[in-house]
Specification:
By secondary structure, the protein is α/β, with parallel strands linked by helices. The chain has helices at about 20-30, 50-60, 75-85, 100-115, 135-140, and strands at about 40, 65-70, 90-95, 120-125, 145. Helix 1 (about 20-30) runs parallel beside helix 2 (about 50-60), helix 3 (about 75-85) packs parallel to helix 4 (about 100-115) and helix 4 runs parallel beside helix 5.
């Protein structure tokens, strides 16, 4: 599990035209889980994607069961456990660094297909540019995909 930065909140996030939509989307899914599912936020390094994930987990941790992961930690066994868990929210940072594993991709697609948990992901690239199966790319686009800019 990725450590949560308790200092990164919605209140101290610098909002501007390049990130306001991503912020609004995350606040929406906190209020209504599955409103957009999954949420896929992409943008260059340093635009605040991880800050928004930390802010989200900080906002929901007391009210919901949630986990915050780095994509580098993912394996098909971990995703299988997530599917079977009683978690409400699954936040995955840096999806572009996800290990190349067809079984992992299939399990991640199953997690999204189940639509039982709110999945929020960040990446430095749009879904179509990830080196994953077309099926998984399609699942990433089922919910809301938004770009963050500096």
């Amino acid at each position: 599990m990725k450590p949560v930065n308790k200092n990164q909140t919605f209140e101290n996030f610098s909002v501007h035209d390049g990130n306001a939509w991503a912020l609004a989307a995350l606040k929406t899914v906190i209020e209504d889980k599955n409103y957009y599912n999954p949420v896929y936020i992409y943008g260059k390094e340093g635009v605040g994607k991880s800050h928004l994930l930390n802010a989200t987990i900080n906002a929901i941790v007391e009210l919901n069961k949630a986990v915050y992961l780095s994509s580098e930690e993912l394996s098909d066994e971990i995703v299988e456990n997530l599917i079977l868990s009683d978690l409400d929210f699954i936040l995955i940072d840096d999806l572009n660094l996800m290990p190349k594993d067809i079984n992992l991709e299939e399990k991640l697609a199953m997690l999204i297909e189940s639509n039982e948990k709110q999945v929020i992901m960040t990446s430095t690239v749009v879904p179509k540019d990830l080196e994953v199966s077309n099926k998984l790319q399609d699942r990433f686009l089922w919910g809301l995909t938004t770009n963050m800019t500096p």
